[in-house]
Amino acid sequence: MKDLISGLNKVFESRIRLGIMSILIVNDSFDFNNLKDALNVTDGNLASHLKALEENGIIRTKKQFIGRKPNTSYFITAKGDLAFKEHLNALELLIKSQ
After folding, report:
1. CB 77 within 8 A of CB 24
2. How far is CA 98 from CA 13, 52, 86, 94, in A?
3. Measuring CA to CA, which residue among 48, 24, 44 is closest to residue 35?
4. How is 35-76 classified by DSSP, letter by letter?
5. What is the pTM of this model?
6. Does residue 3 carry a pLDDT above 70?
7. Residues 40-84: tens digit of each pLDDT
8. What is the helix (H) or strand (E) element at residue 32, kind and residue range?
């Protein structure tokens, strides 16, 4: 029997990372506070997941000031786009195989 989970990407195992990627895949960018609100997570929890995605080249950040306030936005990289779509395809295959 074929290994049904071999196409799943370990980077996306966390529900928070799935949430981050699901938001970013349909938006050009999203800032930290809006991600935090949308996912209902703490600053530290979100920051650790964003860091892991960034270290894997899945997302990139843009830091800027809006007025006098710092703002960090997140974007999916080409590598991240491909990896997430492959992960979703693997999930779809897994579901359809049952």
Report:
1. no
2. 20, 32, 19, 7
3. 24
4. HHHHHT--HHHHHHHHHHHHHTTSEEEEEEEETTEEEEEEEE
5. 0.91
6. yes
7. 999 999 999 999 999 999 999 999 998 999 999 999 999 999 999
8. helix 32-39
Distance CA 76, CA 66 (A): 21
Report CA-CA distances (Å) from 19 to 2, 33, 61, 65, 97.
Answer: 28, 14, 17, 26, 24
Angstrom distance (rounded) from CA 32 to CA 74: 8
pLDDT given for residue 2 in this prediction: 60
Distance between CA 98 and CA 92 in Å, rounded?
A: 11
Look up residue 66 and give its two tokens.
Answer: 């809006």
As a whole number of angstroms, the distance between CA 78 and CA 24 comes to 12
What domains are there in the chain, each with its CATH number?
10-96 (1.10.10.10)
Alpha carbons 49 and 16: distance in angstroms, whole number:
7
